[in-house]
Amino acid sequence: MRLTSKERVLTAFEHEPPDRVPCWCGASQEFWARAKAELRLDDEELRVRFSDDFRRVYAAYKGPEYKLSKGAVSRTVFGIERRGMGYGQPMNHPLAEATLRQIHDYRWPDPKWMDVSQVKAQAQQYGDRFAILGGDWSPFWHDAIDLMGMENLYMKMYSQPELVDAVMQHLVDYYMAVSRRILDAASDVIDIFFIGNDFGGQQGPLLGPTQFARFVLPHLRRLIELGHSYGLKVQLHCCGGFAPLIPLLVEAGLDALHAVQPDCRGMDLQTLKRDYGDRIVFNGAIDSRRVLIEGTPQRVRRETRRVLDIMMPGGGYVAGASHDSILEETPLENVLAMFDTVCKYGLYEE
Question: Structural domain boundaries of the chain?
Answer without folding.
Answer: 5-55+94-345
